[in-house]
Amino acid sequence: MNNNEPNKKQQQLDQFRVNDKDKALTTNQGLKMAEDEFSLKAGERGPTLIEDFHFREKMTHFDHERIPERIVHARGEGAHGEFQLYESLAEYTKADFLNDTSKITPVFVRFSTVAGSRGSADLARDARGFSTKFYTDEGNYDLVANNIPVFFIQDAIKFPDLVHAVKPEPHNEMPQASAAHDTFWDFVANNQESAHMVMWAMSDRAIPRSHRMMEGFGVHTFRLINKEGKSHFVKFHWKPVLGTHSVVWDEAQKINGKNPDFHREDLWQNIEDGNFPEWELGLQIIGEDDEFKFDFDILDPTKLWPEEEVPVKLVGKLTLNRNPDNFFAETEQVAFHPGHIVPGIDFTNDPLLQGRLFSYTDTQLIRLGGPNFHELPINRPVCPFYNNQRDGYGRHTINVGRVSYHKNSLAGNTPHTTPEEEGGFSHYQERVEGHKVRARSESFKDHFSQATMFFNSMSEPEKKHLIDAMSFELGKCKEPSIREQVVEMFSHVHIDLARPVAESLGIPVPSDKGPYNDKKSPALSQLNTVMKPDTRKVALLVSTQDAGQVQAVKDQLEASGMTVEVVAERQGKLDGGVVIDHKFLTADSVLYDAVVALSSPNASDVYKKEASTFLKEAFDHVKPLGAAGEGKALLDELGFTGEAGVIGNVLEGSFADVVAKHRYWERELSGKANNKQ
Predict the structure, then answer these.
(1) pLDDT (tens digit, 9 = 90+) per residue, 259-278?
(2) Given 3-state DSSP classes, what are the helix, strand and coil percentages for the chain, each rounded to the nearest 5?
(3) N or C: which end of the chain has fewer CB within 10 A?
(4) Could you confirm whether domain 70-366 is CATH 1.10.10.10?
């Protein structure tokens, strides 16, 4: 090889290298832009205008950056199910599936993480997608939700910037599925509207126990329109019947190593076992006359509506009861879009929502190969559809006749439009006026009050976890200045948050920016959620012993709704026929909600060692522990007897009540549990 050849290759590459530092921002056509923070709107609170070429260029380029996996929400799993209404909502909406309580509407739901690739692990600290496609008789309606009710940014033009910042850094493609790096926190410090969302992302909400125990939120403010044309503002919620629960951070990291498909497997297996996951659909509704009566702008996507001020009305139930037949054909090819609506549901001028209405179609065009993604089986409506669209990649429909335009006489002007009074969709006629501007509404400029409310609403263990999470993430940042900027920013949320984080990082404690508001929303704390033992997974640790005792304990726990797996030194069966589900080598305490020990007097040293390891780790993760028979001796030896959430004999008393509580934070706060956050 000629020694000059590498240099020639280097020269070829150099002409394509660009250093943006200290350069003026331009469009791809070289036009210098005076503003890159806000999309072009009709008035500060008005809708985004389609003539905003800069937004469209920026968003189009972003939407086409990855093929074939989704740019965000790439890691996901889905299931089929159904939705049924409790009571008619005709007072608020003319949407047929929200009027008829006898109607069962089929759905497909996809859960996902946001930042990681398709190959990332399930328990990354991240927001979760919770998107539902309702196959209604009036067309498909997509409720494209997250498990966090607010978002990082207020205007969709910033979405490419957010995702670029949180994704692996471009020079080394690290880290995967993690916000614990410089570019993300640099974005946070310099885009302080993200303060509220970051509080949620650093909380236990970002590491849910399962999809089945996770809330969903539509994030945006939408409209409901009734038959009389009257409008109400609405936010959508999914409330899990099993309650909202999380794991702890040390546990999450270990689960990612032991079973990176933990959430995916949990959803699949529970559906296979007939433990159909359920959520209730909740609506928060505000009349048009009350739009401006709150101390926040109801259109701001970085703000939630406190449930104590705007109660959640539970109106129906979602049940997932069938797994996909083919992951790619269904879960991977399903195409959601917040613009897929039906009569009776409409949009507001939320600038983040307005941008998504453009972005999602654009994304599907590149990801699914063209404009006919609606013809894929998973995306097809259950009702017939007719229009004058033709051809394109992936066309399935064979259109007959020669007419493909509107209006026409050759086909009697068909397909024809449908008057609104006969079910045709018509946009809500909201009055809009204002100058064409790139600006943010003054009512959107409070970035900290609801972040403070979130912090105030947390229990002591939840506050500790949030502080530990922020300390961990910022501790991964290499630039000291970023740590200092972020801690200074969060001193505007609360000094009781900023101070311990600063001390953990060894940087100066910022000044106290108080007095801080003392507003709370108890609904935000997971300690106030539903507590049930149903489908909780229990590890039953056994040695060679009487299978009758094992079966008795197993039967009692399963009768309370728990799922029990027998774990021993080897697989196979116990004397008497009890199946051993796992050996210690293939199981781990982090994969279970509770641990129960049974052992005979002649239990082997191997059993005692492995069972002790199981119990110690579960104790440190503040999980319920129990024993039966000689198993109590292990609890005594480990010093766990008498501690919160520890039961010496699960055959006496209700271990189900203990398991239902989920975690025993007293151990963590007292320092008895070594729960490394």
Answers:
(1) 999 999 999 999 999 999 99
(2) 35, 15, 50
(3) N
(4) no
